[in-house]
Design goal:
heterodimer, A: mainly beta, seven-stranded mixed β-sheet, four-stranded antiparallel β-sheet, 11 strands, 49% strand, globular, B: mainly beta, six-stranded mixed β-sheet
Amino acid sequence: DTGVSQDPRHKITKRGQNVTFRCDPISEHNRLYWYRQTLGQGPEFLTYFQNEAQLEKSRLLSDRFSAERPKGSFSTLEIQRTEQGDSAMYLCASSWALPFEQFFGPGTRLTVL
Amino acid sequence: SQQGEEDPQALSIQEGENATMNCSYKTSINNLQWYRQNSGRGLVHLILIRSNEREKHSGRLRVTLDTSKKSSSLLITASRAADTASYFCATDGNSGYALNFGKGTSLLVTP
C-alpha cells in the first residue's frame, strides 16, 4: 500500500526562477488537492482536481501558480517567477469523493532565496 | 482563510495523562476531520466525524462534535511520548472539497 508521494521533498531556488512540484496520489483516488502551509499555520487550500478536471482554482494565490493533472493520475504544481513569500511547505492530498477523508503526502518544502 | 481555531495553542502533559484539544469553527459543515503533524512532516489523518454524528472513537482517540456550538474536541487517552505533535482540526465548510484548517494545538508529551 503506497500513500501519497511528492517530489522533490525539498527545493531551494533563487527569486525569479520557476519551480515545479509533482504529486502522485493514492492510485484508487479520483480527487487530488494542493495546499500550502506556512510556519505556524495550518494548511491553506489552493486547488483540486476530480480525475483530470480542475474544478476549483480560484484560491490559487496568484496567476503565477498553476496546476495540472493531465491524465487524472499524477499532478504538478508550478510556480513561476518565484518570490521570497512563496517559501512554504506545499502539500498534496488525495481522496475519494465519498468518503471524504483526505490523505496527505509528506510535502515539498520550498525555500526561495 | 482559516475557519477553525484550536484551543489551547500549546499543551504539555506527562505520559499516561489524557490530552484534550478543542476546535471551534464558523460555518455549517458536512464533516470535521482531525489530523496530526509531526515536526516538519506531512499530515496524518486521524478521524472523520460527520455532521450528524456526536461522538466517534478510534483506538485511544475520542472525538466529539457539537454542531449547535460549532465545536469539536479530540481526547487522547493514556498519552505516549510518540503522541508529541501538532494536531489540527479541518472542516469542509459545506464545500465538499476544500478543507479549512486552524493553526493547530502543539502537544508535548514528556516521559
